[in-house]
Amino acid sequence: MIRLEFFKQEYFSEVNYTLDDIQSKYTSTAAFALQRIKDRNTGLEHPVTIFDDDKPVGFFTLDFGEDKLDITDNKNAVLLRSLSVNPNAQGKGIGKSAMILVDDFVKNNFINCDEIVLTVNQNNPLAYNLYIQVGYLYEGKTKIGRIGPQYLMYKKL
Predict the structure, then answer these.
(1) What's the CA gap between 75 and 115, in Å, rounded?
(2) Could you give the angle at the alpha carbon of 141 between the alpha carbons of 124 and 27, nearest 5°?
(3) Where are the alpha helices (DSSP H) in the chain?
(4) Among candidate residues 87, 68, 72, 77, the one with its CA nearest the CA of residue 30
């Protein structure tokens, strides 16, 4: 059973997996994301662990900072970033299940949040299709990311 839980330091060794060269182009590792949170020290980015039963197998962050305003004008939105699943656990639908669960996770923990936004690189069709399958919308807006054009996607809660 897939579930989400706010990150705790005791989970770090399990989510400190290495991504291959292709995945590293499109997402951050948990270590990088946690360092970014520490460096920014805003209290606005919340790391989340994805569990398969009782084993941590994935990671993402929910960022309420200003970066989301590059994607939406909605100040009540959250930016989902740095999503990854341990390569040893990929191909089992864990990412898709986590993205289905994130809606209720956000609603239950951030009562004023009414939208989730994210970007996905145009050269990453697997991720794009995953987000479409779980209800994210793409309405033609793009931006240039660190390695090329990105689709701006959103989901109203």
Answers:
(1) 9
(2) 30
(3) 12-15, 21-26, 30-40, 94-109, 125-133
(4) 87
- So what's the pLDDT on residue 96? 96
- What is the residue whose two structure tokens read 């986590």? 98
Q: What is the CA radius of gyration of the chain?
A: 14
CB 7 within 8 A of CB 37: no
- Reading the block at residue 72, the tokens are 């939406």
Report the C-alpha gap between 148 and 157 in whole angstroms.
29
* Whole-angstrom distance, CA of residue 120 vs CA of residue 55: 27
If phi > 0 it is left, if psi is from -120 to 50 it is alpha, else beta; for residue 52 that is beta
Mean pLDDT per 10-residue interval, the chain, length 157 residues? 98 95 90 95 97 97 96 97 95 96 98 97 94 96 91 97
Assess contact for 32 and 39: CB atoms under 8 A. Answer: no
What is the distance in angstroms between the CA of the first residue and the CA of the last residue of the chain? 23
C-beta separation of 145 from 151 below 8 A:
no
